[in-house]
Amino acid sequence: METITLRPTFQHPLISSAKMHLGSICALGFPPPSLKVQPSRHSRSLIVSKAAVAVEQELLTKVSLIRIGTRGSPLALAQAFETRDKLMATHSELAEEGAIEIIIIKTTGDKILNQPLADIGGKGLFTKEIDEALLEGSIDIAVHSMKDVPTYFPDGMILPCNLPREDVRDAFICLSASSLAELPAGSVVGSASLRRQSQILYRYPSLKVVNFRGNVQTRLRKLAEGDVQATLLALAGLKRLKMTENVTAILSVEEMLPAIAQGAIGIACRSNDDKMANYIGSLNHEETRLAVACERAFLTTLDGSCRTPIAGYAYRDKDGYCVFRGLVASPDGTRVLETSRRGSYSLEEMVQMGKDAGEELLSQAGPSFFNW
């Protein structure tokens, strides 16, 4: 497992004031007014050495109260810093310099960039190594994009916190057209997401969609270099990176249903670590947590893999009810199945809504639909 640690610099006041005036102390504890005795070179070095040891011990108590594990992409780091800042704002002891440490961990999905995600296989391509570090005790909490998190958690891990959800919509980015509809037939759209590919081809079968991997900056560079004519990115990521100036148009959820849990950040810890569970639990945004639970119940029921285009979105409507829309599709976009539900905004009912929607689409699709 490859890791990189980001530690803030810390200047202790004892270090910055190493030049101390050392005088003779009489029996009363004060220097005699008429006597000035300079300490020997040996005693000065001894006192400074003791001070240095004290400083080092104090520094050790100040760092690593929480070690945050994250991927190293700019977006992943932005999410880790957002988590750090919220913890510092909520808990005064974590606001001290060096109390929170960020550890970068390279995942399988980060290492293999020349293949489509569906071809790499397996689940947890962007989370497995981080979760392993958590369970091994190398980190205390793990910050994930919820859309990357498998529907099951490893034994010994819990995820009690979702931060407030960002905008769930997808952004269309193009240098020559203002929308997907305006792209000429045969135009090449780059996307590593089968969900996006299938929905693009369903509505615009004259377009060509190619695998297009890399972080946000890499994909924007490839677009500028002419590798593709257009691409789609999650608006949430662009907002967190403060890069929305690159957006050509924002796609409605009716035109492009989001990925399960898109725009949501999840924070995990060990199941036996009550201290960390309390820390991150204090940041939980319950409305987001319930919406994510509904969507993931839908995904779990479908038992979707990286080869199955699946989309789903749960939200609170103006009357306070939960509305859920779900979709499964063939990768080539020739077949798309959709369903929707509406019910009370409560955990039990929302999870059941997600399950019911998944069972309905499983029944409609038939057993061979998911064998891509």
Q: Gyration radius, to the nearest Å? A: 27 Å
Number of helices: 12
Which spans of ≥5 residues are poorly predicted at pLDDT below 50?
A: 9-38, 44-48
* Number of DSSP-assigned strands: 14
Strand order of the largest sheet: 1-3-2-4-11-5
Helix-and-strand structural type: alpha/beta
What percent of residues adopt helix (DSSP H or I)?
A: 25-40%
Describe the largest sheet. 6 strands, mixed
Shape: globular
Give the percentage of residues in beta strands: 15-25%
N-to-C terminal Cα separation, in Å?
32 Å
Query: What is the element string, with H for helices and E for strands?
Result: EHHEHEHHHEEEEHEHEHEEHHEEEH
User: Averaging pLDDT over every residue, what do you get?
Assistant: 85
Question: What this model shows, in words?
Answer:
With 372 residues, the protein is an alpha/beta fold. It is 35% helix and 20% strand. The protein has 12 helices and 14 strands. It has helices at 13-16, 41-62, 74-90, 108-111, 117-120, 128-136, 194-203, 216-224, 235-240, 274-281, 286-302, 347-365; strands spanning 3-6, 66-70, 100-105, 141-145, 157-162, 170-174, 188-190, 208-210, 230-234, 249-250, 265-270, 310-316, 322-329, 336-343. A 6-stranded mixed beta sheet has the order 1-3-2-4-11-5, with helices on both faces. A 5-stranded mixed beta sheet has the order 8-7-9-6-10, with helices on both faces. Helix 11 runs parallel beside helix 12. The longest helix has 22 residues, at 41-62. 36% of the residues are buried.
